[in-house]
Design goal:
alpha/beta; TIM Barrel; two-stranded antiparallel sheet; about 15% strand; globular; AKR2_Oxidoreductase
Length: about 325
């Protein structure tokens, strides 16, 4: 049996992408969220998710400037819970939310990795979350965005690093490993700049694992996102023979598919945190229970054989509708 750890739920984090804005690409939102998508309802939902996550032992919260009002909701929650002083906050810059809280927006977010974008977005993050931010990522850094070669941006980010904020990148796409390895080579004043990596890793898309292991060996944080593949590895989300097999294996183990998917991510020795994207307290509880699940070696071996071609995986992800 391969254990996921020691039932330490602090290795889990809660991500606010799905509760910070009315539309997102995660499957099942119509049934999970219903038709009420107003700001007050979502603020209450974010509070319920954060309360449930904290009660479950989760102490890392992930937000981003492009997650609609996620930073605002998190700030309000922290103000309303002044006794909570042990939560690490991570956020991201590099995308702007432009959906205007509309389900039918033609464009929901715009990428901008310029120095001007960093300066403006860090000011916004800092105003809301102040000294609570412990980790700040470039959102979806890629080789072609230029941010990994931009010395002016690096210098500005080094200012945060030197004030105690851990600077890193998040990654997406079939070439995540290239971005991670490139970022590991960036130094400012002789010291590594990027020491946190938030990357997609799941049963269907594990291709970044070797690079993430290298990052962990170098002393960086490695944060796993999308371990349930935007709902494809959640109850009712099976859409292929591979995802159906994961669901069947979960039944055979007497657990749920989301727990099995998250437990598999937790079993990766290089993973510092694994994010849940839960949208209600019941999902938080189910995701958190993954920390208590021991993964049989035979199951782990079979899951390792279910990976999809990265290009195919990411093309399908890019085509998912915002709902």
């Amino acid at each position: 049996m391969t254990a996921t750890g020691t039932s330490d739920r602090k290795r889990l984090g809660i991500g606010l992408a799905a509760v910070g804005r009315p539309a997102y690409i995660t499957g099942g939102r119509a049934s999970d969220l219903g038709a009420e998508r107003d700001i007050v309802t979502f603020r209450d939902r974010a509070f319920a998710v954060l309360d449930a996550a904290y009660a479950a032992g989760i102490r890392y919260v992930d937000a981003a400037r492009s997650y609609g009002r996620a930073e605002e909701f998190l700030s309000d929650w922290l103000v309303a819970r002044p006794e909570i002083d042990d939560v690490v906050v991570g956020s991201k810059w590099g995308y702007r939310y432009v959906g205007d809280w509309r389900m039918d927006a033609e464009v929901h977010e715009i990428k901008d990795h310029s120095l001007e974008a960093f300066t403006a977005q860090w000011a916004q993050t800092s105003e809301l979350l102040g000294g609570r931010v412990g980790v700040y990522h470039v959102h979806s850094a890629t080789l072609d965005s230029g941010v990994l070669d931009d010395a002016a941006v690096h210098r500005a980010l080094a200012g945060l690093r030197d004030r105690g904020v851990r600077v890193g990148i998040s990654t997406s796409g079939p070439h995540q490993a290239d971005a991670v390895r490139k970022a590991l080579t960036v130094t400012v004043d002789g010291a590594p700049l990027f020491t946190s990596f938030q990357s997609t890793w799941n049963v269907l898309e594990p291709s970044a694992a070797p690079a993430l292991a290298e990052a962990a060996d170098a002393g960086a944080y490695v944060i796993v996102k999308e371990s349930v593949a935007n709902g494809r590895l959640a109850p009712g989300g099976a859409d292929s023979p591979a995802t159906q097999r994961v669901a069947d294996l979960a039944v055979e183990l007497g657990t749920t598919v989301d727990r099995l998917a998250i437990a598999t991510a937790l079993a990766q020795p290089w993973a510092w945190r694994v994010l849940s994207g839960a949208v209600d307290p019941a999902q938080v509880a189910s995701n958190a229970a993954a920390a208590d699940l021991a993964l049989p070696d035979a199951v782990a071996a079979e899951l390792a054989g279910l990976a999809e071609d990265p290009a195919t995986y990411w093309a399908a992800r890019s085509a998912r509708p915002w709902t």
